[in-house]
Amino acid sequence: MNRIIRAAAAVLLLSGAAPALAQETDNSKAAVEAMSRVTAAKDFVSFAAMSDMFEIQTGQMAADQGGSDAVKQFGQMLVKDHGNSGKELMDLAKAAGIDAQPPAALDERHQVIADSLKDAKGSGFDKAFAQTQVDAHKEGIALFEAYAKNGDNEQLKAFAQKGLPILQKHLETAQAIANQ
């Protein structure tokens, strides 16, 4: 059932029909809520690494498929910032003795979203991509805020705190693009 809802939301995004509706899907709200409860280091590393991979892949798409310079530049920013974040995260996890590897592939939820962007081009891509990034960065901010406040590893808590302004900047950029 969740897969059908995600696919329907992706179709709405691609068609340009009601991006605001897609933002308000139960799945997006549920994901933000779930991220706001993460306090275990291994879970934080896993979710943050998946988020970085998703941002890098969709950022590369934006750099290639975006219709506007703003989207292309934002995509490049995501690739750079999340590439740096991912490397630092894995280094910290290793130093903390957390058995974590970067994900080999996107999980099903992120893959469905990424797949929904693959065939879009130009302004259709821009709208779908911007809304995807709004949702993804709301999730990321919830994850990083929760872990920075209640996490069980001091080095990773500091990493999460340091990452929050970058995620907030990404959210603001995505919102500005979505509102154009």
Q: What is the H/E order? A: HHHHHHHH
CATH class: Mainly Alpha
Residues in β-strands, percent: under 5%
Task: Tell the overall outline.
Answer: globular
Name the average pLDDT.
Answer: 85
Number of helices: 8
As for the CATH topology, it is: Ferritin
Low-confidence stretches: 1-25
Number of strands: 0
Helix content: over 70%
Largest sheet: none
Kindly report how far apart the N and C termini lie. 33 Å
CATH homology superfamily name:
Ferritin, core subunit, four-helix bundle
Structural class by SSE content: mainly alpha
Summed up, the domain count is 1
Measured on Cα atoms, how large is the radius of gyration?
16 Å
Relevant terms:
single chain; 180 residues; mainly alpha; Ferritin; globular; disordered N terminus
Summarize the structure.
With 180 residues, the protein is mainly α. It has helices at 2-15, 19-23, 26-35, 41-65, 69-95, 108-118, 122-150, 154-178.
Plain-language structure description:
The chain has 180 residues and is mainly α. Helix content is 81%, strand content 0%. The protein has one domain (2-178): Ferritin, core subunit, four-helix bundle (Ferritin, Up-down Bundle), CATH 1.20.1260. The chain is globular and about 45 Å long. It is built from 8 helices and no strands.
